[in-house]
Amino acid sequence: MFDSVHKPISPQALRFSRFVFTHVSLAAVAFLFEFTGIVLTAISTGLVYHFTVYGGAGPTETYAAIGILTGLGYGLAFLIRDEYSIESLLQGPRNSGRIVFVWSFVFVGLAAIGFLTKTTHDFSRGWLVLFYVFGVAIVLLLNTALNRILTHLIARGWVHRRKLMLVATDVDLAAMDCEISGDMVGFHIAARVALPHVAASPEEIDDALRAAVDNARAIGIEDVLISSALSGPDFLERAVNAFSMLPVAIHLSAGGLIGQFKDARVARFGGTAALSLTRPLRPFEAAAKRWFDVVVSATALLLLSPLLGLIALLIKLDSPGPIFFKQRRRGYNSAEFRIWKFRTMTTLDDGDMVKQATREDERITRIGKLLRRTSLDELPQLINVLKGEMSLVGPRPHAVAHDRIFEKRFADYPRRLNVKPGITGWAQVNGFRGEIKTDEAMRQRIDHDLYYIDNWSIGFDLYILLLTLVSPRTRRNAH
Asked: I need a labelling partner for 455 at 20 to 30 A (CA). Which of 121, 149, 283, 421 fits?
């Protein structure tokens, strides 16, 4: 009534020798790799700064001490959340935004400790700024290096991959196998158990599961993945209970609809357990993002007021018409608002038909070409941010007329409005901006926007703002 299949694994993939990295040893090496890089960065930036400013080496032991504290704080933040595992290093939550956030958080924490202990006067502020800025680049480079080194080690068979057993019906086992095999990095499928999908007696199922448990114990299975498609009288519960007799990690597959939501998690409402598929920003997260928007936008408007006045004057001298262009856009939860922009065209389209700007568009004014190429025409949107209609970072809002078109062609398009739209965004800094000529271009923009929504953090916002200023891809397709 069941089939347990032992898939042969190539010797290259399973070259377990005394040099093989286990999950624990790999995490320790990754931690030490980043820790050493941070300490060396602290010392080198300290020496460079002191030689440049004072003409001498300076207190090297102080640079090393701060580097050690920073390295420990940074590494432990990932270590305690098991983010030095294979999955986290290659395809987990250690994205650029999270790395910048952790690095910044460690610095803020050390600054607070220094203030409380009255030791901040012992350190050069100039060096600390240099260490922070260069440190951001270094930790991002170290993460990239870890990713490539680990990929190489796995390809050479020098990383121990956990043995996985699949348990599913004989109908969906092949599909389940195919679905997960291509993306697994820290596991290999060592055995497969096919249970009947047609009606079977509980005794037959129990016999099949006992044999599967014996097989799992004999070959040293470490993880069991049970298909949620198992049906019949308590078959799923029987399978879980059977494998709970083993010292293995038991997982319930979440294919189909649930598999589309990568952040699905268990939530409890009183005594009832539920699977949460999506969630908006938590109250604290929303408040932190809002305060960040208010402080930065108010400061930017104050500092940039001379530039804004100059641009307004140039627009009036260049062509007849208003200084600002206001157009209906959709914001958070599809609520409409009027976006502020410097006028860059001779037309002010805001109806049911809005023609997108194209390269060499004759409607664009002379000063408008410069403003669009440098994105200076977007600066008045700081007013929208201050009013709470937009955020500094988020999916770029489109004209309402364009929204109505795209939401009919892409089922997940409206999910972009689950957060406030932004002046800049993850899609824009990756070059997906400007005129949309193909469905594939729009698909790429949507995918980047949804990735941002699913992976938001203050650190991610800071990273996107930095890329907006320095990355040439940000200005790609700007016309």
From this structure: 149
Which amino acid, 401? Answer: A
Q: Is the dihedral of CA 325, 327, 331, 336 positive or negative?
A: positive
| Locus of tokens 């140039």 | 314
Residue 476 — left, alpha, or beta (φ > 0 → left; ψ -120 to 50 → alpha)? beta
pLDDT recorded at residue 11: 41
Q: Which residue has the tokens 């005794």?
A: 203
Task: Kindly provide the b/e burial profile for residues 342-373, where b requires at least 16 CB atoms within 10 angstroms of the residue's own CB.
Answer: bbbbeeeeeeeebeebeeebeebbebbebbbe
Phi and psi based region of residue 40 (left: phi greater than 0; alpha: psi -120 to 50; beta: remaining): alpha
Domain locations in the chain? 3-15+161-276, 23-155, 283-475
Task: Please answer whether residues 226 and 173 qualify as being in contact, where contact means their C-beta atoms are separated by less than 8 angstroms.
Answer: no
User: In the block, which residue shows the tokens 């005129």?
Assistant: 435
CB 358 within 8 A of CB 373: no
Q: Which two tokens stand for residue 408?
A: 């009919």
CATH of domain 3-15+161-276: 3.40.50
Two tokens, residue 317: 């001298």
- Per-residue pLDDT band at 13 (split at 50, 70, 90): very low
Please tell me the pTM assigned to this model.
Answer: 0.58
DSSP code string of 379-419? TTHHHHHHHTS-EEESPPP-BHHHHHHHHHH-TTGGGGGGS
pLDDT (tens digit per residue) in 171-189: 778 877 777 765 556 678 8
Tell me which amino acid residue 478 is: A
